[in-house]
Design a protein that fits this description.
Number of helices of chain B: 6
Structural class of chain B: mainly alpha
Radius of gyration of chain B: 22 Å
Largest sheet of chain A: none
Strand order of the largest sheet of chain B: 1-4
Distance between the termini of chain B: 61 Å
Radius of gyration of chain A: 25 Å
Oligomer: heterodimer
Helix content of chain B: 55-70%
Chain lengths: 115, 245
């Protein structure tokens, strides 16, 4: 950003703002200024919560539906297993995303070092 | 000295400040409500007062407000694309509220609203329901395609579709449980170790040093969890805007 610019009249402010936004849009390289992604420990921790939440949700909904429909314990068993599978799926996706971001960052770092 | 007065869980107790009863609903103004109001007031004060001067070269407070705005604006743009920009006010409000609620909870004798699962679940459900509605409004019934993974043999679909549907409904649970667990566990740990300081007498210096470090870590966690909640909300929003995977 150039700082020596004289303050220009307000009437072309909108145009300049739009131009600046478009420029920023182009320059955006998928980079968050800080804490770009959860790394290492917190990524692993995320997966743990994901697994736990899957089981909790499956078991909880199963328990409630069982009580409502009087089918104890079958729905709870089935939904617990499905919930665990869903938790695994969510955890897997979170892990793959963290992995992808990590490799992207490494590639970025490498290209910057070459420059 | 009564032992129960020093329970590490005492800090989570809900105290009715102004009892209000509307029919069968207990709508009392509690200490939790008070700290939510304080958080909202603090965010509003921070953002309005700091940019009040509107100087071209921002001062300390103004840059803090501008950095937080820029940070979330970049996050929304990077994760949801340009279509996501119209949801920026909501995402920014969400982030600032959780951030302030978490950080205010680190002040001694204050109350951490986000250490109660009902608060975090309510926040997560607002995101979840909002995102689902956006998905259906933008894509109609095609939004249901989110539950049918592509490139999968047709005979495993009856098993995979329920799993996908449940994994979608697990989202608000994991979103709220993560924030709630982090805040509750951290605050309980602090209180438990603070109890050791008194019990150990002169050797209480060791847990005291640990608390000093851990308090710093807890402030980091408070900020990080606000960020993670926001990032995941953005990812869910991105799923609703572009439901093809």
């Amino acid at each position: 950003m150039s700082e020596g610019e004289p303050p220009s009249p307000l009437k072309d402010f909108e145009a300049r703002l739009r131009a600046a936004r478009e420029r920023q849009e182009e320059n955006s390289d998928n980079r968050h200024p800080l804490l770009r992604s959860e790394r290492g420990v917190s990524a692993g921790y995320r997966v743990a919560v994901e697994l736990f939440a899957g089981m909790l949700f499956g078991g909880g909904v199963g328990w409630y539906l069982d009580r409502l429909l009087g089918t104890r314990p079958w729905l709870m068993v089935v939904l617990f297993i499905l919930g665990s599978a869903a938790g695994l799926l969510n955890g897997y996706r979170a892990m793959m995303r963290a992995d992808r971001e990590e490799s992207e960052r490494e590639r970025d770092d490498e290209t910057r070092r070459k420059d | 000295m009564a032992a129960e007065a020093h329970s590490p869980l005492e800090q989570f107790e809900i105290i009715k400040l102004i009892p209000i009863q509307i029919g069968p609903i207990d709508a009392s103004f509690t200490n939790a409500s008070l700290f939510m109001v304080i958080a909202v007031a603090a965010v509003t004060a921070f953002l309005t007062l700091s940019v009040n001067t509107r100087s071209l070269v921002p001062g300390r407070w103004q840059s803090m407000a501008e950095i937080s705005y820029q940070f979330i604006a970049n996050l929304v743009r990077d994760s949801t694309g340009t279509e996501g920009r119209q949801y920026f006010p909501f995402i920014f409000t969400l982030f600032m509220f959780i951030l302030f609620a978490n950080v205010l909870g680190m002040i001694p004798y204050s109350f951490t609203v986000t250490s109660h699962i009902i608060v975090t679940l309510a926040l997560a459900l607002v995101v979840f329901i909002g995102v689902t509605v956006i998905g259906f409004v933008k894509h109609g019934l095609k939004f249901l395609g989110l539950f049918v993974p592509s490139g999968v043999p047709i005979f495993v679909l009856p098993l995979l579709v329920p799993i996908e549907i449940i994994s979608y409904f697990v989202r608000p649970v994991s979103l709220s449980v993560r924030l709630f667990l982090n805040m509750m566990v951290g605050h309980t740990m602090l209180k438990v170790f603070a109890g050791f300081v008194v019990m150990l007498g002169i050797w209480g210096v060791a847990p005291l040093a640990f608390i000093a470090v851990f308090t710093g870590f807890e402030i980091f966690v408070a900020v990080l969890q606000a960020y993670i909640f926001t990032v995941l909300s953005c990812l869910y929003l991105a799923d609703a805007l572009h439901p093809h995977h």
